[in-house]
Amino acid sequence: MIFKKNAVSYGIWALYLMVVGIVLSFLGMAVGGQGNGIPYMALILLALAFGSLALVYFLAKKIIDNVKIKKMASAKAALVEGILVAVLMVTGILLRILMIGGAGEEAAYYEVAKVTESGMQAQLVQGSIYYYLCLLNGLFRLVGNKWMAGIVLQIVLQMLGIGIAYFAVRRLSGKGPALVSLVFLTVAPGSVRDGITYSPKMLYFCMYALILLIVAQYLYRTTRCGGKAFTWILAAVCGILVAFAGYTDIVGFTLAIPLLGLPTLKREEKGTVLWVAQMFLSMLAMAGAFCLLVQLDSVMSGSDFGRVLGAWGDTYCLKGADYTFFFREADYETIPMLVLIALGIFTFMRRKNEEMFSPWVMTLMSITLMRILGIVTPNMNGSYQMYFAMAGLAGVSLSELFVQSGGLAEETVSVPETVVEDLDEEPRVVQPSIGIWPPEPAVSNEADTAATGEAAEKAPTPRQTVRRRTLRRRRQQTETDVPVWESPSQEPATDQGIAEVKDDMAERKQEEPQKQVQLIENPLPLPKKHVKKVMDYPIQPDASLMHYDVEVDPGDNFDF
């Protein structure tokens, strides 16, 4: 999904630059072991990082702009993409199976969910954890209280969520970002470790990725058929799904960023009122679904609406600032991911009037802010959603490096949803003179004759068959000297009258000569044969310079 680059986009980019600078500064302070005083190591690392990235960007820009890469056919590109996705998914499954010996759990989920005589002893917990415990309990009822069964479930849930997330990123940002994010999600050590650990994060990630895919499909439809009834229904459905994800865990409300940010960053100028109306419909559906979920929870728990809403607010209230989580969770893959994210500061300028960064930047910053303020809960801290947003932003940053400078987005256009009318070719007939029937056939050129010959080989349509029969009937009437300009009610009723009409027509034919259609010559001048001009200068230039055709970049939109 390509958005228009406007003042809001540049404001988000400035915020993006500031956040990347802060993160690099903290990394410099951590590397230098400096807590107080002037952070010399942080400033040195910040200068070196931005200088190195700027140098890499401009060198890569020079190479990419001068090298023309031949594009593959759509079928071949789809085959290569499918092979890469399959290889990465199989590699991810094998890595998790090989590392299954180091499986563990974040809390006592196994003890709570296993089948006992007294049943599952689940206390009042938030929705995502409760759903996960119910799923584990149902699995243990089928296969028994086996520890490895829960680990296999985690692997299945994570790989399913990664597959859905790939299609969501592909619809939202394209093939390149989807493949880059798939690499981080499948083979990165931190992601593999999360896939073999008892935790409700993978179940919630599946739901999060699925709702993001539906939202991305809605955004895709709004740019092509925004006024269709199904698009309005999809807008309401997206609002309801975002409300459900947010009520289950507050991180789910970050899905509203791409859903409600389209009117601000939309690509086309037309349809603004329509998109704003759909945005308000999504907001109303989101608010109504959230209130309905609170009411349903109050009915099932035997409480009232206010107490349930207050309990939900107490769960996600401010718990104090904490920014050390990033250093605790950082792994080896964090370094290349941060490098690619920082590179996006420069690749943001690759497109002249378009960009794809804003939804990912705002989503990542929103989750980070929730974690810093302590809004999230300890067991559902939004760490994997943050990792997923970082992977998507890194994919966009790297993919934008290979875009031709100032080039427009190349989006695959689906089949137009219009009714194609089957128009029969009408025969070309020259208007005859008054009183003459049948008309003389039109004189056509050689191209028309060839086209007519090719069309004649095909079977005529029913309409053409009726038309030919009508022309044949009229020609037969003319050969029998029956006047075709008179109606049947005006025909003579006796043989004497018919004879008089025949005599009258014969006299007219003798007195008036046959009129023929006079064709005029083509008044337009015919194209002249191109004669190559030769410059007769005393100095003969090199043969390689004797050309006049200027090569134009296919991506150039001639926007000066």
How would you describe the overall organization of this protein?
The protein is mostly helical. It is built from 21 helices and four strands. The protein has helices at residues 7-32, 40-66, 74-98, 109-113, 127-143, 147-173, 175-187, 189-195, 201-225, 229-248, 256-260, 262-265, 272-301, 305-315, 325-329, 334-347, 358-373, 383-400, 446-457, 462-479, 495-511; strands at 3-4, 104-105, 197-198, 354-355. Strands 1-4 form a two-stranded antiparallel ribbon. Helix 17 packs antiparallel against helix 18 (383-400). The longest helix is centred in the middle third of the chain and has 30 residues, at 272-301. The radius of gyration is 37 Å and the shape is extended. Mean pLDDT is 77; it is low at 408-457 and 481-493.
Radius of gyration: 37 Å
Low-confidence runs (pLDDT<50, min 5 residues)? 408-457, 481-493
**How would you write the strand order of the largest sheet?**
1-4
**Head-to-tail CA distance between termini:** 25 Å
Write down the secondary-structure element order: EHHHEHHHHHEHHHHHHHHEHHHHH
- Note the total helix count: 21
Structural class: mainly alpha
Strand residues, percent: under 5%
Calculate the mean pLDDT score and round it: 77
Helix-residue proportion: 55-70%
Q: Which descriptor suits the 3D outline? A: extended
Largest sheet: 2 strands, antiparallel
- The number of strands is 4
In short:
The protein is an all-alpha fold and 560 residues long. Helices cover 61% and strands 1% of the residues. The protein has helices at residues 7-32, 40-66, 74-98, 109-113, 127-143, 147-173, 175-187, 189-195, 201-225, 229-248, 256-260, 262-265, 272-301, 305-315, 325-329, 334-347, 358-373, 383-400, 446-457, 462-479, 495-511; strands at residues 3-4, 104-105, 197-198, 354-355.
